[in-house]
Amino acid sequence: MNVTIKVAEEIVARAKARGIPVEAYVEEILRAEIGNGDARTPHTPAEIRAWLDSLSQFSEKIPPLPDQITREWIYQEHD
User: Fold this and answer.
1) What domain range includes position 52?
2) Residue 20, by phi and psi: left (phi above 0), alpha (psi -120 to 50) or beta?
3) Which of 25, 42, 56, 60 could crosslink 47 through cysteines, CB 3.0-4.6 Å?
4) Structural domain contains residue 68
5) Exposed (0-12), middle (13-18) or buried (19+): which is 61, by Cβ within 10 Å?
6) Is residue 65 part of a domain?
7) Is residue 70 situated within a structural domain?
8) Around Cβ 15, how many Cβ atoms within 10 Å?
């Protein structure tokens, strides 16, 4: 879909500074703002809960941290 818009001179200058066409720069800005379609930012409480649940899916496999974290503990596998 094509859309005709009037862009600020600042956007034109930024596109020129990067050496890309204004159209490509505007498209890049829009893609960054709305995402690339693969991953959608959760907005509703149910979406946020589902996202958090997916993050914690394998959390039981993470070993517990010691009561006190020391330099020796951090580098225990390095000599």
Assistant:
1) 1-59
2) beta
3) 42
4) no
5) exposed
6) no
7) no
8) 19
Q: Read off the amino acid at residue 1.
A: M
pLDDT score at 76: 83
- Residues 19-65 have pLDDT tens digits of 999 999 998 888 888 765 555 566 788 888 887 888 888 888 888 88
Nearest one of 11, 9, 33 to 24, comparing CA atoms: 11
Spatial distance between the Cα atoms of 38 and 33, rounded to a whole number of angstroms: 13
CB distance 8 to 19 below 8 Å: no
* Amino acid (one-letter) located at 7: V
Q: What is the pTM assigned to this prediction?
A: 0.44
Q: Tally the domains of the chain.
A: 1
